[in-house]
């Protein structure tokens, strides 16, 4: 259950080593146990240098993938989890839990309390999930509110002290490193009995509860026979409960209007004390019917001090917020593009921003452009072979807008132009960003598609909301309740309907 | 030292920590009240680490810890410490078959707060040992054993249950990761324990199933594996699977979590598993409907793609027949996906990773769906097409061919070969074509291959290309192609610009012209010796040296001297050969030390196999003087791999008695007269002696019949025997054995050769013992 070592490595492509170890820690008592448990199959924790090299090689983050290297490229070396065996000095160090996020590689080696040959099944190693949670915890800590490199450095310098608390002797006690930080500050406060370990102090002040619901809408639109367009809403409910008392009991409920779309695939925060079985079983796996549970969704809980994600959910709304149509045809030296976007009438027409990105991959820079648009402005990024159609805050009354034109490209110069393995030939996409009722739209061109980016404030597609009556507090004083909502686009693709596009199995189920 | 296990400091450490932990006066005196709790917690962590490294250390303090948890102590550190100590104690006691006794209720540690004797733990069974897997499926037998060993009295069982419930009840006060540890420890501790219903865990499960925490779901899976149906009914199992399926694709969770959940799905501890253990398989309850969201698409990153592809393959393998009416069929989807991957791999500027994924996916498919031509045939054609478009992936193809089964390899080789030879190359892809051809060329379609090579030869202007070309020639040589290849090699030996290439071609030509097919195959096979120099010719030569020269090898054949037969005019040694491995064309060469005999002929055996009895070998001896001798033996043979080996065998000994021959019978018949005549003829040139020949229990008669029977001329059993022995080349030895006593017989002997006398004496004295 313990970790033998942990590393944070910054990935620096283009430098000789392609990375630097920013932080590393080894746990000698755990290592001692590993030597006994693993017996003849024991492989010691390597020095930082060799570890860095082996890990970057395994993760394919070294710059040299010019040549075929059997130990990396062989078809039989298939890795299906983020858990690796690293070849170091002729021996294989396993299991190494590692992943790359925001240019930092997070890695640790969990203790396996038995011999490693034959290799025990991964699922039987308890340290693996602990390792993941540990790394996620560090990642949250480093990136919560972090904006620049110096802040990152400050946080990295705090790590040794924090790990002393959060992971003494290599055994993880709390993946929420912020708790440990608070703990250090709170140390002088006398803690009452039965204080939960995840709550490091008590709140003093005016009671208030804030609930914010953020929905992201994803979509894949093809406009093709035999392929269904797909879209999905993913919701995150974030709460902050400032309430007095050691363990205040709170029930938060989420409501849907009568025509709202039921919430599914609900995952809750561990502080939720019990769950209705209807919430537990409502799932997108089943075919939808009218009997689907449509709330209210009640979550009894004992809140932690800090802001937390009460739950995540998905939902299948009846229509996508923006229906797109994108055609791209190659005509001798130029591309002819036609785009139509239609905002659904039920959707709030008040974006924070909305733009469509129309990227052209695997081509040279844009040399010439002629276009006509019914609404909004078009920005041209010639070197990046990208068009951005800025739609702004509102769709016109008709709710429908269009863009058409021709684009000509220069010769492809190697390194610089964007490469995309999917957008080949006429395959292209447009990507939109519906955002806080301000939507960004991006159109990218994979097999040619556009991608929308947008954001709409105070709105959810499912209709899900929380209000003054959503919070029941079984403690003295009526808290002030504030609720927020927003809708953001994420991965909102509209594919060129004139070329093949990557489909998911779901799109084939008509 | 000061910190050794028996030092005073060490002895005081544990009571100190326990005291701090208990918040006793000891601790209070140390720190202000406000710091009491963190101090207690830290003491707990230290104790937990000690217990981890010395399991059983705190076995005596279980009662104390329980009491603390019930009162005021910090919940999380104490819970984890108690759970760990409890787990270790139960495991240790099951090992020695003991019960818990009053450990859970005693509030005072056995040492009564005095110094701790660390060595006790060492001596007991408390040493750190590789744990039995915490995951039970791996060792059912072990589980059975512990089941019987871990029986507790009703009293103990009740206390144990109370302790576990106490821990579980406060578990919601722990952080999620600590809760998960607690569940792992308790699940492990209670597994196979009689009288401890796993239903204790049930109240926690619904709460845990609703969360997105990786550690918590993983711990639930551990409980599932530990208790199976006792804790999870079929419906529970289905619910757990659904939650897992959902978590494996939930957009709110990070990709590494998805992958781990997907792995958990394919290794799901089912109540009633059907397939073989330890192999990844889709659980029975995970039908196509559930899997729908878990299928791969081109938009996934490589790891997710491969993990999901595996699931898709399992689905395809499963409903081979059923799916007919289903639209879209998973198999069709699989085909489309592979086609998409190949299309990406074919991109000119694509990074290598794209090609790697394509081949990994293809490999995965061939592994899961072997024997399904509907999948493999399009795969083969798709790959051939990929090669046509992007020959620079030749290395991937070669690797792929190395990894897959012959079911796919052979047809793929054929289409790839066609792909290469059907377009005579002068383009920049020539080096890839040659690399490919070196892998796929064999005896089939010779003329097309040779034509391609002939055409290519003109364009092979640099060393690299020439080497590539020669590698193909080499592959053809190995495959036994002869006809057109001779011409090609001759041309190459003249034409190639590079001297190294010319030498090579000439070498191959000479080999082809001089060696028979099988030998050639061996000579060109993988080199046995690692190349010492980078030069390819040198490296290759080492291979030839190994194959074409005689190797010194340990002896694979044993020889023993068999029973001695006397026929014919010369003594003959009967040898029994025995092989340790099949060997062929065995030639045995003998050399007599000291030239006592005339040089010996070599003996030939066509074939020897272990386990198959071989005919004895007869080795005629031509002594130059009648004396025993040592034969030096060498063996020369061919192994089944075609190597010729030379081995030095242990020497063989020719004994004095091995040289004995009877006298030819005179025309008048052998009788007393004949013997007397021989007897008299020995003197005066010869020698005479009398020797005492000890007799064993068998008596004189037995001795004679066993050793001297063929040489007896006159016999009056059981008292008197006259023996005449001819010793080649021309000596005689005559014996009179008369008037035997109980323990021996006096032997009068005469010989015409002085030198024989001591040998004969030794021989006779040794007879009784030799029987």
TrEMBL record, chain A:
Transmembrane segments: none annotated. It is found in: Cytoplasm, Cytosol; Late endosome membrane; Lysosome membrane. Pfam families: Adap_comp_sub. It is a peripheral membrane protein. GO terms for cellular component: AP-type membrane coat adaptor complex; cytosol; late endosome membrane; lysosomal membrane. Residues 206-496 form the MHD domain. InterPro entries: AP2_Mu_C_sf, AP5M1, MHD. Coiled coil: none annotated. One of its GO terms (biological process) is endosomal transport. Keywords: Cytoplasm, Endosome, Lysosome, Membrane, Protein transport, Transport. Its main location: cytoplasm. Probably part of the adaptor protein complex 5 (AP-5) a tetramer composed of AP5B1, AP5M1, AP5S1 and AP5Z1. Belongs to the adaptor complexes medium subunit family. This is AP-5 complex subunit mu-1. It comes from Macaca fascicularis.
From TrEMBL, chain B:
Residues 583-652 form the AP-5 complex subunit beta-1 beta-barrel domain. Residues 129-153 are annotated as: Disordered. Residues 674-766 form the AP5B1 C-terminal domain. It comes from the Eukaryota. Pfam families: AP5B1_barrel, AP5B1_C, AP5B1_middle. Residues 156-520 form the AP5B1 middle domain. Residues 143-153 have a biased composition (Basic and acidic residues). One of its GO terms (biological process) is endosomal transport. InterPro entries: AP5B1, AP5B1_barrel, AP5B1_C, AP5B1_middle. This is AP-5 complex subunit beta.
